[in-house]
Amino acid sequence: MRFTSYLTKASDLQNKKVDNFILSTSEFGRFSSLATESCFELLKTGREERPDAKYLFEWDCLQTQGVFENKVTALSEIDLNLFDGVRVAELGAFNWVLENTTLPIHLILENGHHNLKGIQTWEKHAGKRLERIVLSLELPKEVLKKYTSSLKTPVELQVLGDLLLFYSPRSLVKNQLSFDKDVHEKKWYEAKANSEESPHRGFTLIENKHGSFMLNPKKQSLLQVLDEVSESGVKFLRVDQRLLSVDLNKLTFSQENLQNLLPNERFIRGYFKVNKTDKIFVKLKNHRLQRRDENFVGTVVDVKKDQYVAIKVENQQMKLTLNKRIEFATPDGKMKSMLLRSMKNISLEDIDSIRDEKIILVPHTSGVSVKTRVNLAEAHI
Q1: Domain 282-380 CATH superfamily
Q2: What is the pLDDT of residues 70-88, one digit of tens each?
Q3: Cβ(110)–Cβ(135) under 8 Å?
Q4: What angle do CA 174, 178, 180 make, to 5 degrees?
Q5: What angle do CA 99, 104, 108 make, to 5 degrees?
Q6: What is the CATH number of domain 2-160+221-277?
Q7: Could you give the dihedral angle defined by the CA atoms of residues 197, 198, 204 and 210, in that order, rounded to the nearest 10 degrees?
Q8: How far apart are CA 303 and CA 311, in angstroms?
């Protein structure tokens, strides 16, 4: 196994376990903050202090045709031949590097390409120029084994870093937030968001010049199962420390060391152990989550812990009164039951039955989240 990581400052070179360093600039790397001059200063330092290591230039942002043309123009100021290879994630960039350089290429397929035949097509297209394929984190261990044994090119997998849930080259964050004028001129925006579809909270939203990103609240780590990663045929293990607030030279690539450095972070293995992508379909078919018109009351639209659950009444024919039992069907398939001891309207007035109310407030019950369906329970007893 060989470790690959990002070179963001000179002290990163002290980690002797890493022998492949990735560099980029803020113009080409979606999470890079380096200016072009700083990038080449680090490259020079690396060549002097770690001449044994490889140094790779990364161009991993998505782009429209106009932006792509601007990137090609900007490349005229960068001597790519100073690097040992180029990493690309966008297929237009992949073809440009293939046609305009003689450098080895690392093709980043983390944003998709779960189809083996598709990956093999790109492998055939690049031929001997393709030095490495970076596979998606959504491929479980057994699939990885199949792919690595079928591909001719060595495979790389991220073993520590953030889990990217969504990426778009469009601006989706800045315009939704209220900023002072001078803040709008910043190059990096970050916010937290909660799901309206489920009880999940704390998603990190990032926007920079390359677009908008949504990250899982939990970080990804396969450090506890590196032997299994190696057994699956993966040759290169990538550590992305850039958003983890930890120095690369302090990492020993063990889970214990990681937890000591980041005690407040929660780490998951993602899809490596099992593919859960079809679990949602089981929930969608769950009878508890289906709308039943004969006893359907409405949907939870707000929850205030220890105070109330706000229900949007969507069935005006429902004769819901005090001392009847209602049933909550949460988005993740859990069931909660409650005897109605009190109800209020949005004016916080006590009511004993639903009349013309569009929203009613009932006592808070734990485990109920927004989007939970509410049904009259008697029909199911």
Answers
A1: Translation factors (2.40.30.10)
A2: 999 999 889 999 999 999 9
A3: yes
A4: 95
A5: 90
A6: 3.20.20.70
A7: -30
A8: 9
The domain spans of the chain are 2-160+221-277, 164-217, 282-380
Q: What is the largest CA-CA distance in the chain?
A: 79
CA-CA distance, 335 to 367, in Å (whole number)? 9
Q: How far is the C-alpha of 95 from the C-alpha of 73, rounded, in Å? A: 16
Q: What is the pLDDT of residues 229-274, one digit of tens each?
A: 999 999 999 999 999 989 999 999 999 999 999 999 999 998 887 6
Take residue 164 and report the two structure tokens written for it: 């990217």
Question: Alpha-carbon distance 291 to 299, whole Å?
Answer: 10
Specify the pLDDT at position 13. 97
User: Is the distance from CB of 258 to CB of 223 less than 8 angstroms?
Assistant: yes
Per-residue pLDDT tens digits for 111-135: 877 899 999 999 999 999 999 999 9
Residue 328 and residue 336 in contact, taking contact as beta carbons nearer than 8 Å? yes
Residue with tokens 């196994």: 1
Instruction: Please report the pLDDT score of residue 274 as a whole number.
Output: 65
Say if 2-160+221-277 and 282-380 have the same CATH topology: no
Residues 221, 160 contacting (CB under 8 angstroms): yes
Lateral strand order in the sheet of 211-215 = 164-168, 211-215, 203-208, 188-193
Nearest 10 degrees: Cα torsion 187, 192, 195, 198: 140
State the Cα–Cα distance between residues 40 and 79, nearest whole angstrom: 10
Helix axes 91-100, 65-74, angle to 10 degrees: 40
Mean per-residue pLDDT for 143-164? 96
The mean pLDDT value of the chain amounts to 88
Give 199-210 pLDDT, tens digit per residue.
667 788 889 988
Write the DSSP string, 44-92.
HHHHHH-TTSEEEEEE-----HHHHHHHHHHGGGS-GGGSSEEEE-SHH
| Spatial distance between the Cα atoms of 246 and 222, rounded to a whole number of angstroms | 17
